[in-house]
Amino acid sequence: MMWSAFGQSLPSAVGIAISPIPIVLVILMLVSVRARANGPAFLVGWLVGVAAVSGVAFVLAEAADAGADPDVSDGIDIAQLFVAALFFALAAKQWRGRPRPGEEPEQPKLFAAVDGMGAAKACALAFVACVANPKNLPLAASAGAGIAQAGATGGAAAGALLLFVLVASVSVAAPVVVYFALGDRAPAILAEWKSWLIANNATVMMVLFGVLGAKAFGTALGVLG
After folding, report:
1. Helix or strand or coil: residue 67?
2. Count of H-run helices and E-run strands, the chain
3. Which residues have a Cβ under 8 Å from the Cβ of 98 and sit 6 or more positions away?
4. CA 119 to the chain's CA centroid
5. How far apart, in whole angstroms, are the C-alpha atoms of residue 60 and residue 147?
6. Over the stretch 55-108, which tens digit does the pLDDT of each residue have?
7. Rounded to two decimals, what is the model's pTM?
8. How far apart are the C-alpha atoms of 13 and 54, rounded to whole Å?
9. Cβ–Cβ contacts within 10 Å for residue 74, how many?
10. Full DSSP string of 127-158
11. CA distances (Å), 193 to each of 112, 188, 201, 215, in order?
């Protein structure tokens, strides 16, 4: 049951993991003067954010008996239609806002403030970047509800949620692991990652939103069955 429930949430976990801006933020933390504290603090905030949203969604869906009540299950499927519409709209926005050939992509003003942050602010920033993101919030919520909808309870549900959180956080964790594992070689590698992510953010997100929209729409078709 745990693996089946986790399988339900896996596409959402991958969707959350593909988040260029949070990855750039954690890289900036790791090249700041407080790298050894801020990098792990950012990762902790991200983990807590993913766990909080998916956990609350699971508890609410389980309380509504989503695994056994067909009306609740249909309601979750119908909600996916709104999620699909959101993702298609976000994909269109990324397409319209993409940099033109030869144009430098605009960087968020937040990037300049990262160097002066302490560990507490780094942790809080990661939490907000996770739960307030228009992509991550519906994905984490639908994953938690989907695990309940799959009928997982107790240890199976806890295991599925844990796996979901870990997969959703792997991209933010990777720069932290590189920083501590590679020592002096890490800054050059992280700088390359940051440059690529900033340059290709719009394209990556446009494709991702399109795929996630199609996935949510396909899930919503379950209401017809």
Report:
1. coil
2. 9, 0
3. 202, 203, 206
4. 21
5. 11
6. 999 998 888 765 555 656 666 667 777 777 887 887 887 777 666 666 666 666
7. 0.82
8. 10
9. 15
10. HHHHHT-TTHHHHHHHHHHHHHHTT--HHHHH
11. 18, 9, 12, 28
